[in-house]
Amino acid sequence: MQNVTDRTSNPFGMRPPCEEFVPGYGDANAAFHLIGDHPAVHGGLDTGVPFTNAAGRRLLAVLADVGLVDDPDADAPVLGELFLSYLHLCADDPTPESYADCERFFDAELRAIGAHVLLPVGERATDHILRTYTARTPQRPLDMETLHAGELRGSGWLVVPIADPADWEDGSAARLTESLETLLATDYRREADLGRFMPDDQPYLVR
Fold first, then answer.
1. What pLDDT sits at residue 190?
2. What is the pLDDT, as a whole number, of residue 42?
3. Where are the domains of the chain?
4. pTM score, two decimals?
């Protein structure tokens, strides 16, 4: 199934219970879903686009190198096969209660996008993705340096954790670039064509 929309920002019309928020942004049929923590960490309050602070643009530069972003310095970059969003999209200072309240919006958007690869950024996003969308129960605190740019199998998703770009060490960007280039060169979609079971000759792709 394909989402049909002409909106890049907030394509599903999310309306969280806060006055100011940074909605999801990008290709509503993306194969890659980049997931951050909240606007105060990864930016977007001025632009309305996730990952548009200094650290976020450092990450977008890597994604530009592998062809998923056109201009990492743009306030409204053109994305290819990529969607950006936050666990906590509200601009308010997060609390445990507000994280729990925002989770329904994040989960609805993640499932609507249906990306093949989840790219959680930082410890909180990675912990949430691993606990919620894989069979893993990671020990806290997570060792993000070890997890960074690796591949983990989830329940229908491939998860590639990313250390927070504000904490990157020498070589972190290169490791992520290499990992994504390798992934993009493979059959990361892992779809099977069940069209042979259909009454016509049209393909029927399932994950």
1. 57
2. 94
3. 25-206
4. 0.89
Task: Report pLDDT for 179.
Answer: 98
DSSP state of 119: E
Which amino acid would we find at residue 155?
Answer: S
The C-alpha atoms of residue 6 and residue 21 are separated, in whole angstroms, by 21
Determine contact, residues 60/44, Cβ cutoff 8 Å: no
Bridge partners, residue 205, by sequence: 193
Report the C-alpha gap between 138 and 126 in whole angstroms. 10
Q: What is the pLDDT of residue 193?
A: 38
Taking phi first (over 0 means left), then psi (-120 to 50 degrees means alpha), and beta for anything else, what does residue 26 get? left
Is the C-alpha dihedral spanning 185, 157, 146, 57 positive or negative? positive
CATH topology of domain 25-206: Uracil-DNA Glycosylase, subunit E (3.40.470)
Q: Can you give the pLDDT at residue 60? A: 98
Give SS3 for 6: coil
Q: Do 140 and 119 form a contact (C-beta atoms < 8 A)?
A: no
Determine phi and psi for 10, rounding to 5 degrees: 50, 55
Measured between alpha carbons, how far is 60 from 63 in angstroms, rounded to an integer? 5
Q: Give the position of tokens 């016509």.
A: 200
CB atoms inside a 10 Å sphere around CB 156: 13
In which residue ranges of the chain is pLDDT below 50?
1, 4, 191-195, 197, 204-207
